[in-house]
Amino acid sequence: MGIVVEGKGLTKRFGDGEAGVLAVDSVDFAIGEGELVMLMGDSGCGKTTLISLLGCILTPNEGELWIDGEQINHPDQDLSVVRREKIGFVFQLFHLLPYLTALENVIVAMDLAGKKSDLAENRAKELLIQVGLEDRLEHRPAQLSGGEKQRVSFARALANNPNIVFADEPTANLDSRQSENLMSLVRELRQEHSTTIAIVTHHEGLRKDADRIVQMKDGRILSE
Amino acid sequence: MNNIFLKDMAYRRTRVVLTAIGITVLILLILFLGGIMNGMRIQATQYVKSTGADIWISAEGSGGAFIGFSMLIEEHMGQLNAARGLEPHSASPLVFAQARPIIRGKPSKAIVVGFRPGKLGGPTHVLEGRMFEKSEFEDYSPEYVPPLQVVVDEKMGLEIGERIVIGGKELKVVGKVKSLMFVLDTPLLFMEIRTAQDVLLGSYPRVNMMIAKSSERVSPEQVAKQFEYSPLKIEVRTLQQTIDDIIDYYVVSPMRAVTFLRVMLWLAAGILVGMITYVTTLEKTQEIGVLKAIGASNMYVMQLILKQVVLISIIGVLCGLILSFIFAAVAPIFVSIHLLESIIVAVISFFVCCFSGYLAARKAVAVDPMLAFRGEI
Ligand SMILES: Nc1ncnc2c1ncn2[C@@H]1O[C@H](COP(=O)(O)OP(=O)(O)O)[C@@H](O)[C@H]1O
Ligand SMILES: [Mg+2]
To answer: Less CB within 10 Å around the terminal CB: N or C of chain B?
Structure first.
């Protein structure tokens, strides 16, 4: 089983001196192909910062990062290329574009990766069917429930066949029934498509499905 | 999906429409003001050009015919007609003066043109009615009673036989001529030079200027030069110099503020587009952060915004262009919008809008994709 993402000595500080925060502190962390990793820890312990570092959204102050076997050269590389080709993101607050339908929101991810529009549309439909939204294709985000929006987010994250999907507290804004439904989707994606997923969540129901549960505290990884 | 920017615009249509209207109004004003100045330029020179004279003579120190105060004695005529380089007997005296005629009981504005019938300076034919007859006296004669008759501009709405009052004297409208308004739609009232002297100068036998034609073998510049050291107290200018003087005196100088205003309007159009783009971008900061987080390149984000800026600018500028022609047609003053010039102005305006939109859009490109992980910002 190959390693999809690997960070060594990743460190991220926000601010300098007294007021500075050491959000992620020399973390070594690797995620293997097809793994479902659960990232847990108190609020403010650095979970979001860590997945942003691993997902090439943030540049670390120190440390090295490999994605899909290639080392990331932070200052000189256009990280947007890595993000659109190798990584999928699901955010706590969905962040779909309000002026686009569910279908178009998925197509956008492929559009910005330069995929032809007819191909993109077919794939977007497939993905939305896969996440159980076949009858919501033409709905705007405002016409969708939280759970449905998060399913669209997952479809968007998967659009460019990423090596890994990072999900940051995807159920935090959902009620318990919707959370349960979404977790079923995560299980399905993992079982049927062996998608590699790193998910920050407090959802206890996912524990038994996770390959690994990683606990964080004060910017460090406590235990696995 | 190359129409994502259109969907964004449709979603924010109120703002898009308002911005386009803002640009439309500004471009309309820029073009319309240009049209007014153009119209003034045409009106300022159309009478002068219509006379066929290429030598314009005013009193020494007047700064040119139509410019400063100029009074000449008619005795110069003899010497002028004897001068070399002028077409024989082409020189003719002219009274050209602002007047306040009372028309149908109301004071209005007009310019009295007193000319010698059959000579340069008057209209060649009437559209309606008749011209007054040639004076019996070539030179001033106290016994002569000039006819109290006037030939008016067709656009004044006067009828043949109607009377107007100038300088307390009643004049009868005998003919109408093709419109040849002076600056700011000031109509010309043509009358015999003696009549003009009678109503405006209390029969004082002076004229404001004299005009003549250079003979075919000599250029008007040479003729003008020949008078430089003449003992007569006169200034001699060519048609071109006279036109330049008039445009500078009646159009360019008074309209300097308008020219300045047009530049300001350009600036305003640019600022408008820049500001709206800036505010819209600020509002969309998180959206842009999300797009960047899911892998949009800076180019992609820039294009998304610039496409909107370009489209809004095109719509605004085109509407302004079209409306300016419509407004020019229905305006109560003479406005002349030149198509090519308008297109050039419109294209410049378009680039001003796009450039300021671009400046504002740079802000969007700098958005931090980390915003995607935040809640309210
Ligand atoms: N942009 C930032 N500027 C300053 N401090 C930040 C910023 N982002 C996060 N932090 C700080 O870093 C720490 C870790 O934050 P975060 O990774 O969001 O934690 P978690 O996701 O585990 O709740 C917190 O103390 C937070 O206040
Ligand atoms: Mg967090």
So the answer is: C
